[in-house]
Amino acid sequence: MKKVEFFMLLLCLIGASFLVSADPPTCPADLDGKCSDSDDWQGDFFPEIPNIKYEGPSTKNPLAYRWYNAEEEILGKKMKDWFRFSVAFWHTFRGTGGDPFGAATKYWPWEDGTNSVSMAKRRMRANFEFLKKLGVDWWCFHDRDIAPDGSTLEESNKNLDEVIELAKELQKGSKIRPLWGTAQLFLHPRYMHGGATSSEVGVYAYAAAQVKKAMEVTHYLGGENYVFWGGREGYQTLLNTDMGKELDHLARFFEAAVAYKKKIGFKGTLLIEPKPQEPTKHQYDWDAATAANFLRKYGLVNEFKLNIECNHATLSGHTCHHELETARLNGLLGNIDANTGDAQTGWDTDQFLTDVGEATMVMMSVIKNGGIAPGGFNFDAKLRRESTDVEDLFIAHISGMDTMARGLRNAVKILEEGSLNELVRKRYASWDSELGKQIEEGKADFEYLEKKAKEFGEPKVSSAKQELAEMIFKSAM
Amino acid sequence: MKKVEFFMLLLCLIGASFLVSADPPTCPADLDGKCSDSDDWQGDFFPEIPNIKYEGPSTKNPLAYRWYNAEEEILGKKMKDWFRFSVAFWHTFRGTGGDPFGAATKYWPWEDGTNSVSMAKRRMRANFEFLKKLGVDWWCFHDRDIAPDGSTLEESNKNLDEVIELAKELQKGSKIRPLWGTAQLFLHPRYMHGGATSSEVGVYAYAAAQVKKAMEVTHYLGGENYVFWGGREGYQTLLNTDMGKELDHLARFFEAAVAYKKKIGFKGTLLIEPKPQEPTKHQYDWDAATAANFLRKYGLVNEFKLNIECNHATLSGHTCHHELETARLNGLLGNIDANTGDAQTGWDTDQFLTDVGEATMVMMSVIKNGGIAPGGFNFDAKLRRESTDVEDLFIAHISGMDTMARGLRNAVKILEEGSLNELVRKRYASWDSELGKQIEEGKADFEYLEKKAKEFGEPKVSSAKQELAEMIFKSAM
Amino acid sequence: MKKVEFFMLLLCLIGASFLVSADPPTCPADLDGKCSDSDDWQGDFFPEIPNIKYEGPSTKNPLAYRWYNAEEEILGKKMKDWFRFSVAFWHTFRGTGGDPFGAATKYWPWEDGTNSVSMAKRRMRANFEFLKKLGVDWWCFHDRDIAPDGSTLEESNKNLDEVIELAKELQKGSKIRPLWGTAQLFLHPRYMHGGATSSEVGVYAYAAAQVKKAMEVTHYLGGENYVFWGGREGYQTLLNTDMGKELDHLARFFEAAVAYKKKIGFKGTLLIEPKPQEPTKHQYDWDAATAANFLRKYGLVNEFKLNIECNHATLSGHTCHHELETARLNGLLGNIDANTGDAQTGWDTDQFLTDVGEATMVMMSVIKNGGIAPGGFNFDAKLRRESTDVEDLFIAHISGMDTMARGLRNAVKILEEGSLNELVRKRYASWDSELGKQIEEGKADFEYLEKKAKEFGEPKVSSAKQELAEMIFKSAM
Amino acid sequence: MKKVEFFMLLLCLIGASFLVSADPPTCPADLDGKCSDSDDWQGDFFPEIPNIKYEGPSTKNPLAYRWYNAEEEILGKKMKDWFRFSVAFWHTFRGTGGDPFGAATKYWPWEDGTNSVSMAKRRMRANFEFLKKLGVDWWCFHDRDIAPDGSTLEESNKNLDEVIELAKELQKGSKIRPLWGTAQLFLHPRYMHGGATSSEVGVYAYAAAQVKKAMEVTHYLGGENYVFWGGREGYQTLLNTDMGKELDHLARFFEAAVAYKKKIGFKGTLLIEPKPQEPTKHQYDWDAATAANFLRKYGLVNEFKLNIECNHATLSGHTCHHELETARLNGLLGNIDANTGDAQTGWDTDQFLTDVGEATMVMMSVIKNGGIAPGGFNFDAKLRRESTDVEDLFIAHISGMDTMARGLRNAVKILEEGSLNELVRKRYASWDSELGKQIEEGKADFEYLEKKAKEFGEPKVSSAKQELAEMIFKSAM
Fold first, then answer.
1. Residue A348: CB partners within 8 Å, gap ≥ 6?
2. Where does the signal sequence lie (chains A, B, C, D) (predicted)?
3. How far apart are CA A165 and CA D4, in angstroms?
């Protein structure tokens, strides 16, 4: 296959939302930050959509916030600072609605049917207009989603640079920055056996080159974190896999990333995003504990944190709350991919989270963690395939932000009301004893404990009060 | 509640297989090792069951081995030494057939309907007769299953001592030893919130005293390992749980166990048995990687190994093969609980493994590990509730042993035939290059790798040949 | 085994919450309906618990209703008539806290440690006091849970009669009636292969005799429905099962039940309760559609309805809402077992439902169904094993009732607000066309449709607006 | 969007395996049936691949059958007649290796990078060469996979006709016929809400037109069955769905299909293929019992049979064996999609079945059914994404056919050995009694049964012998 053909193939496959509009909207020569402050600003991409504002719970307007009030202070911090919401470029601007049985369904009016650099730039402008209308200051990106893959690494880098340059310019005068960037190491066939864990050494090198560049541009744009998404780092069957070798390679790769981060002076956090499976049968960063074990085994535990995604949590058999707490207790809670799955399906649906109870538990963890900065909440979430109106993009994000905002409000209510914490305190009250302290300080050996056990006789065991805990929890929402 | 009543309550609940036979068989005054060598030995408990012998694959006799031939050498080691099969006392002699919706179904003829020490001793004799007829040299036990729980710790210990003394005597003149012992910290209501992770400090002390004693008796009987089964070390809801505190307590507990092991001169391996859930919603030793992370975090990774159970593996979303390999690659593969689950049900069914493919993969790991000693294969497996004939106990064990034996034979066949290993070798051949070595030695930084990637151009990526690997694998069985 | 011994064995196994209190409370000679109307009524079993009253959402009292206000009218019907809440005798009064790994944990003060008829009667009095304090008019029972199993069918029937006579007397002067009764065909070992689908014909006959009696006593007490719980009607493996024969037997059994119902003049509804598995690997009444197919195949579809349990719905891979709608659309929605499962565990946890969103969807179905009478909402739900205070029994029921009440309030709010219905109406608006009508009336054959398709050209397809639907739905709660 | 652009878009999306080979192999002017009989026939598409022959279990040749011996007689029927194996055109010739996270990986040498009619015809020639080399007489197709979708229905039909004409010609002189055809109603965005159950009436009409044409061409080619794959007939959320209306529409659609089948004189079986979910959250033909209930409810049960797919069976929580038996007992077993899923992943992996135990159980059902004709075994199975060699296509099919052949051989061995059947016969022996007959004939009412139960006393209940059944089963393979 010739290079040019391969490039065209990628055009077809990656974007898959083109050749669509015969008459694209006129693309403005410049789009600066100022206009977004004006209420009557229409913008070039979403002229029908107003700036989204807080209107409170009683509004019937789907294009308004009911619970998210960016500037409102909660527990001494503005709501926007608790969340640091981020829009995921790939889902919002490159999501086509394709699924394993279906072609693209989404034909956004700003698409011109090409995967050209100029189209990439127009899309980036749309992104900034979207962020501003939504009132969100962060965005996240994959390198190959914001700029077209070229037929060579050099060409891909050049494409990326051109789009990054525009993003840099669009950021000017605004607070908008990348929450994080990443290298997309899973779409292209070269990565079919993984990137850092590929059976082919040439692919490892290619992946390293791609991550190097992605780290550079994230740094250049003022990104606050850099994410490693396991993508295809895993296996389909152990029969043809040398898992030990692959894990060693992955560790070498991460070591090189740490070294390069330091070399270029990037101060952001490096994040690993656990996911149990899909597309591979088994991903090496299965869940928070698995990722933590890997980092400890290879001496990398102080160099990385975790990006916990709620949908990945449930796919691995845990609640999102559990994964957040596991990360937190291991000192590794770095960022949250705020989405959710479907409780009855076995794949990653990446839905916007709408369950207020789950959001409340998430925020209970975040409050315990003292906030999430320099991480934030990235909406790694996509419209359903059948949601094809431009306004659906806004509705979905508003719904997700409002759900998280309700979660924060509820978590604070529970905290301030106090009876749930009191219930937990009471449950463990026996540990405040002399013996409790001795044990916690490592001073109680088995012989001493046996002596104590014999003195005590049958220990008292109290009700766990789970139904009461649930009643308190649910009554707060 | 008075003590005596509580004791009666425990009688009812723990055993649940009593008051059964009005006319128990006469219990022999002594049962020594000699008689088992005689073909016409009938024994006192299983008079209808012959000594189980190898008859080869063509036999129609359900009370014979088709594939397990204890003394046959495979890869320079006798089959019995590859496996070190062990009978689990609790399932085989205390399994009642009860389930969440049903009462006991199993009324073995040697039971007299009491949970007395004398009944416990008779049961222990049955265990030894069973081991001898089956031709198995190891057994595993829970403290409270081999001897009745008393109304005080002292009384429980006394009961245990009496039964242990008999076991010691029965072991004499035979090679029979415990593969491992453990303390059962889950049945009694005092452990409803866990043992080492209980919210009640008194329960922690009680658990320590019980483990101390169980370690002592395991050591006394010449046991080669000691297992910690997480039982109820976990949570039902995070709403009422201080997970950080509980995990710290668990670490303190393990540290004390390590210290005590050294103090009493026990040389066996300490083993943690991962399990994701059931009875708790979440167990702290979820899977091999989670347990490894815990051990690393608390500096215990050199003091413990893992006891991998196949049914627990599948409950946690992994294959058994995956869990074994994860343990092995972390240097933690210590013992195997050879059982399996049901692929369509969501709870621990603890079936005897009958899938030859799965057994083959298990044995591929064990061969890579150079064997499993001082661990072995414990049949943590139970008869189905509806299997109520005494011979069913033998049939189930024979079937499990034969399955594992086929697995070993197949694994060796695959190894010796060579084409599967060759397929894997070829898949990673590019790593034998200069660049491969540089990477593996940590000498390839991102800049060097980028340079190489640019030199190489688009890397070659070969077929993973998964269908061929599966064809080779399946053709060997 | 002698009969008396077997009886003692059952004593131990069935109840498992006895021998507990050395000093049981004095059991009152009579407990009539009057006292419950008085605010200062203490009762004999729950002296610390007041009559539970509606106090509104702002109360902090765990022993009060926040959302359930029995007499309040909603959509022209009192709340209590929408729900017809029922307490499940077995969970509330016979639940011991036992699980597959643990003994009983619940020692209620009114238990005297026996499984005698007199204890059964005292328990029945406690049931009526519980119902009155909770303000609930219905209860559900299994025959063997309200009265001790005897050593013969005759003795069991006699025990049952004695307890039923008391229940009849306690019902007098009150509105309390059984919502439904059932025969418990799963605990006793005789039912290990099933009841109506047992491989033993004698067990089929025994099951028939037991159901006959249970139908009689349900009728005698004025019960409004009779339930068949599949229990062990299913299989563990197809290898030893003749599924066709077993299903035919089940049909014969149901036919005989219908005939007997008519003979004794019982006007209540016969209900089948779908459940996919547990304790068996596969239950024949897997889900609503499976049960409907069975009923249609054997010509029984007009004689039965379904009792949908939410936890069973999720175990079978569906939402509760789906199962309710499936039952409703098949004309088979008869009763609801209001509980829920744990989204991360694979067994029946029978928790009280606390998810307001799920409760809202349940109530949307019930409103569409025009209510659920003569069925109701039975709390087939149990305290967690670790919840051991008497007040926990009340808290759990209050929490469950309040959750359902919020669901009703939310469902009505959504209905009255109208925009969700409007969204659905719009989605299907094209079916209001001439062609839509022709199709629905069966008048559009393929040739005509092809002609139309060619006339139309590419059809218009609108956004499904799922995110908007979810926003509207969630904003109502 | 202009028509021509939309057509190009579809080109990109549907096939996604193009622009690949700069130098496609010369396409032969004619390829008739004769050459395949010659051993030295190379063919035009697979010149490196010989005709696949039976070489027996000891061969090391991956391109030979070990167990499948087409002409060998088993139980009075040739192996090829037991199976009637079919190659699925879509997986084998249109499978690109794309997955939700990855682009196409498969670049077959005969592809020229277009989705033109001429490419479709070349692919059809490859299909026939593949069938002949494999020695398989049946193939299955989706209309839109064998011929390119046009910009109008008329154009699509014209494209289809051209390809069908070639297929007809290629069939000449050979025994090759379609096992079944179907209309692909899921890929195109117009079907995003379903086909027959779409919320848009125009889509219903379009779907009808497409099915009409697909039935016609299946009939024209001598196809023996016609399949309805539920595709997107289901819902994503009940919140925006009128399930009752959609199910009614589906019934109307099937009624029209039945009428049209009769009108054109198509004698083949109409088949519904149950699948629980994916791509929709819930498919209306969830499992065999659900589909059966639908057919019964709408009076269609005599007009349809079921096409059972093993991977769909496990996704719905059943074994494949269970679904086959459920279909058989409902008189609905029509065809088998011989594939399998991954026991640890929650989506449709459509792997070639390699589990001999599962294959044996499948064949036990087929033998009980007296064979499967006019249905057969269609390999609705695909190469893994990472399997990219042309020979992998052969290896996968050979492995799948050999697995089924082993299954048949084992099933016959078990049947002829007899002890498993004997075990089952004994288990139900009590039903051969007088009482058993009375019950089965509907002559035993509850009063009679109660009388019998009292006469019998406690019924005898025997061991289910599940472990013995498993031992017998496994020993045969």
1. A275, A278, A311, A312, A315, A341, D100
2. 1-22
3. 35
pLDDT at position C39 is: 55
Asked if the model's pLDDT at residue A321 lies above 80, the reply is yes
Mean of per-residue pLDDT scores for chain A: 93
Q: In CATH terms, is domain C3-416 a member of 3.20.20.150?
A: yes
Name B78's bridge partners: B73
B120-153 pLDDT, tens digit each: 999 999 999 999 999 999 999 999 999 999 999 9
Q: Tell me the mean pLDDT in the region C109-136.
A: 97
**HSE-CB for B330 with a 13 A CA cutoff:** 33
D214 touches chain B (CB under 8 A): no
Beta-carbon separation of A5 and D16 below 8 A: no
Chain D interface mutation, best of C446, C468, C473, C475, highest count of D Cβ atoms under 10 Å = C446
Q: What are the tokens at D394?
A: 């052969």
Q: List C304's β-bridge partners, or say none.
A: C270
The two tokens of residue A244 are 């030990």
How far apart CA C251 and CA C294 sit, in angstroms, is: 8
Q: How many CB atoms within 10 Å of residue A209?
A: 25
**CA distance linking residue B338 with residue B336, whole number of Å:** 6
What tokens does B235 get?
Answer: 């949570």
3-state SS class at C201: helix
* Cis preceding-peptide flag for D374 (omega within 30 of 0): yes
Please compute the mean of the pLDDT values over residues C350-356 and round it to a whole number: 97
List of residues 6+ apart from C270 with CB closer than 8 A: C225, C226, C228, C254, C257, C258, C261, C303, C304, C305
User: Quick check: A449 pLDDT over 60?
Assistant: yes
Look up residue B352 and give its DSSP letter: P
Which residue, B451, B447, B453, B437, is CA-closest to A260?
A: B447
Q: Which two tokens mark B188?
A: 């009694």
CATH 3.20.20.150 domain extents, chain A: 3-417
Residue B41: per-residue pLDDT: 78
Query: Distance (Å, rounded) from C-alpha B170 to C-alpha B32?
Result: 6
* Secondary structure class of C53 (helix, strand, coil): strand
Touching subunits of D (3+ CB pairs, under 8 Å) are A, B, C
Of the candidates C85, C138, C87, which has an alpha carbon nearest to the alpha carbon of residue C405? C85
Return the DSSP state at D402. Answer: H
Assign 3-state DSSP to chain C and report helix, strand, coil percentages, each to 5.
45, 10, 40
Phi (first) and psi of residue B471, to 5 degrees: -65, -45
CB C180 within 8 A of CB C224: yes
Strand partners, C306: C272, C333
**ipTM at complex level:** 0.93
DSSP D380: -
Q: Is A12 close to D10, i.e. CB distance below 8 A?
A: no
Q: Is B100 on the interface with C (CB under 8 A)?
A: yes
Report the alpha-carbon distance of residue D178 to residue D157 in Å, rounded: 18
**Model confidence at A37, in pLDDT bands (50, 70, 90)?**
very low
> CA B92, CA D331: separation in Å to the nearest integer?
43
CATH topology of domain D3-417: TIM Barrel (3.20.20)
Residues 6+ apart with CB under 8 A from D229: D182, D184, D185, D186, D273, D275
pLDDT for res D39? 55
Please answer whether residues B379 and B352 qualify as being in contact, where contact means their C-beta atoms are separated by less than 8 angstroms: yes
A16: left (phi > 0), else alpha (psi -120 to 50), else beta? left
Question: Is residue C27 over pLDDT 50?
Answer: no
In chain C, list all ranges with CATH 3.20.20.150.
3-416
Does B100 contact chain A (CB < 8 Å)?
no
What is the C-alpha R_g of chain B? Answer: 24
pLDDT for residue C40: 63
C278 touches chain B (CB under 8 A): yes
